[in-house]
Amino acid sequence: MASLLAPTPTSLQQNLACPWFASRKPTTSLLSSPPITHSSKCPGRCTAVFNELSPGFISEALHLDELVTLFPVLRSGLSQFQRVTSVLPEVERWEIVVFVGLSWIYLTARPGVLMGAIDAYLLAPLQKGLDSLAGRRSLKRTDFVLGNRLGEGSFGVVYAGAIVPKNVTVDERIGRTGRRLETDERFKEKVILKKVKVGIDGAEECGEFEEWFNYRLSRAAPETCAEFLGSFVADKTLSQFTKGGKWLVWKFEGDQNLADYMKDRDFPLNLESVMFGKVLKGVDSLERNALIVKQIMRQIITSLKKIHDTGIVHRDVKPANLVVTRRGQIKLIDFGAATDLRIGKNYVPNRTLLDPDYCPPELYVLPEETPSPPPAPIAALFSPILWQLNCPDLFDMYSVGITFLQMAVPSLRSTAGLKNFNSELKAAGYDLNKWRENTRTRPDLRLLDLDSGRGWDLATKLISERGFRRRGRLSAAAALRHPYFLLGADQAAAVLSKLSFSRQ
Ligand SMILES: Nc1ncnc2c1ncn2[C@@H]1O[C@H](COP(=O)(O)OP(=O)(O)OP(=O)(O)O)[C@@H](O)[C@H]1O
């Protein structure tokens, strides 16, 4: 940056005018070449400028040159900036550079005020416009048929369903029984529909939030969650539809969630073929289990890192909210309890809506005394400070820790086993090592003790009380750097299996 200010105001224009400079291909790396003395190549006035500059600057200038050529606004802005700063004394020029640098760091620090503003004021309206053009925002009741009921939360009821193809006309009552829908050849595009409960306090608001978070994530981290197709309001009361009731629609991502897989005695081996194909054949069974669990953990934490980077905390991470796709991807669902702490979306102080089995001891994502958020732009401006002070993302990381233990320790997979573990853990002051010493159960911890206990060490660093300055638990980024993930045998196996799939 300093070197950018160093040349004379006209140097950039000279560079642009220079036929030698202009003829350099963008792929040519000037950085890797020795210092440039191209006076022999370009006989123009610009020679002096180039000779004075480091190759680093020239490389920067080359990229800048391409950029400013492409964007006239940037070009005029930059030359104006250079004109203004050139009349300033050196010290003031440095002050400006430092101010711009610090502002940049602040605005790009987690949760990303700058990206958030770009998303809110540019990408969101753009997505809305494009979706409207493509007809994605004009879903209607008759576009879908309903199948089985899959689940019911406090605010919504979830159904399997399918998109009605354009050339098919359906009896409006079709799909009332799941069997007909599943066997009906006409309905190939499966979906998941969530009916927002009508007349339940807070349900409508929860539905609005869930829709907002799904649109937000479809822009910011689409690979982490189920593909959101949109929403519609029922136009009449018929079977499960109530006139005026809202429905949210997702692409059907997979038959089972992680909790379903964990109910099976064979877990985690029942996920082997979907995650690794036949690549682990011949590997010892404990090692195999360990690799499957590690791959699941890697995927969950990688997704959470992306979500946390956007300022969103899920607040309800648990096996039932992790869908396993046919290609072995783990996708997060159910953002009804999520909160966006960049702008304070769905953050109500003192409100806890969570599953107690996976909820960290602090219960709240921010300290209870944190006030209600101010208007979004102001909240956004202060969000990096809030994030630095409170590390709200560590809330989800505790739930990941519990999910990890459940996957690794068979006796913790049942509801009763988990409840007993949680009460013992509470008695041990949320210190996993103390729990291990004192537990009256005899848990099988072999999977965690492999590789000198790396898994166990990771678990102890996820399942813990918040320490000094609300830290002390690993963030998603720090967890991915933990030695547990260092040897990427699970990754290698996953890649190999994808390669063998694509060859078939
Ligand atoms: N996109 C999807 N693809 C496949 N299955 C899904 C999808 N979305 C949801 N499901 C299935 O539906 C179940 C219920 O979904 P979800 O958790 O969103 O509903 P909910 O009403 O909030 O339930 P709860 O509050 O009990 O978690 C999930 O556990 C999952 O098995």
TrEMBL record:
GO terms for molecular function: ATP binding; protein kinase activity. PROSITE patterns: PROTEIN_KINASE_DOM (PS50011), PROTEIN_KINASE_ST (PS00108). The lineage of its organism: Eukaryota, Viridiplantae, Streptophyta, Embryophyta, Tracheophyta. SMART domains: S_TKc (SM00220). InterPro entries: Kinase-like_dom_sf, Prot_kinase_dom, Ser/Thr_kinase_AS. It comes from Aristolochia fimbriata (White veined hardy Dutchman's pipe vine). This is Protein kinase domain-containing protein. Residues 144-485 form the Protein kinase domain. Coiled coil: none annotated.
